[in-house]
Amino acid sequence: MRRWRRRILWGLLIVVALPHLAILAYRVVPPPVTPLMLMRVAQGHGLTKTWVPLDAISAWLPLAVIGAEDNRFCAHGGVDWVELREAWAEYRSGERVRGASTITMQLARNLLLWPGRDVVRKAIEIYLAVVIEALWPKRRIMEVYLNIVEWGPGLYGAEAASRAYFRRPADQLSAQQAALMAVVLPNPREWRPDRATSYLEQRAATTRLRIDQLGPRLLDCAR
C-alpha cells in the first residue's frame, strides 16, 4: 500500500507539474501541437498550421479579436471578473449562459485543455489563465493565441486561416477581413469569414465600431 501511495503521489505531482512546465516552455518556444489539434485529427480532420511572429500578422487582427472577444484584455490579469460576475448573475436569473472567457482563458483552453463546458474544466481554465498572465507578457499571449486558435476544421492560426479564406498572408489582412475572422471564433467549425452571413456581417460591423471607439489604446499592452 505504501508503494502504491508513493506512485499515486508522484503521478499527481507530474499531472500538476506538466501544465506549468509547458507554460514556461511555451513562453519562448512555439507550441508544436495542442490537445485540441490531436482530438480533431482523431476525428478525421487534417492539421494545417503555420507559425508566424506577431509582427507578421496584420495589426487589424489582434485589434479585431480584442474588440470582438475581450475588450478589457489590457486591463485584466487573465480573468475578467466583471464579465464573469455578470454572466453568473444572468445564469442565476434564468438567462442563457454566456462564456465570459477572456483571450487568456481561451488560450489556456486551446493550449492545454479539452473542449467542453463542464465546471471542472472551467475552473482549471481560470487557474491556468492566471498562471499564464503571471508568466507571460500580453504580447506573447496574443502571439500564441493567434497562432494556435481553431479557425476551421483542421485549420489553426492566423496565417493558415488567412491563406485558406482570403488567399493572402496574415500581414495583408484588411480591417474588414480581420473583423470577419474575429467574429467566427465562437463557432469556427460552422462559420466561415469568406462566406459571412448577415449575422456575421453585423457582428463584424459592431467589432469595427468598437475598435474605433476604444482607439489605439486597445492594443497598447500587446505591442
At the fourth level of CATH, the homologous superfamily is Biosynthetic peptidoglycan transglycosylase-like
- Broad structural category: mainly alpha
Assembly annotation:
single chain
Q: What share of residues is helical?
A: 55-70%
Q: Quick check: average pLDDT?
A: 87
- The rounded Rg comes to 18 Å
How far the N terminus sits from the C terminus, by CA atoms, comes to: 54 Å
List keywords for this structure.
mainly alpha, Penicillin binding protein transpeptidase fold, 3 strands, globular
SSE topology:
Elements: H1 2-26, H2 35-42, E1 48-49, H3 60-69, H4 81-92, H5 103-112, H6 119-135, H7 138-148, E2 150-152, E3 155-156, H8 158-166, H9 175-183, H10 198-214
Parallel strand pairs: 1-3
Antiparallel strand pairs: 2-3
Helix pairs in contact: 1-6, 3-9, 3-10, 5-6, 5-7, 9-10
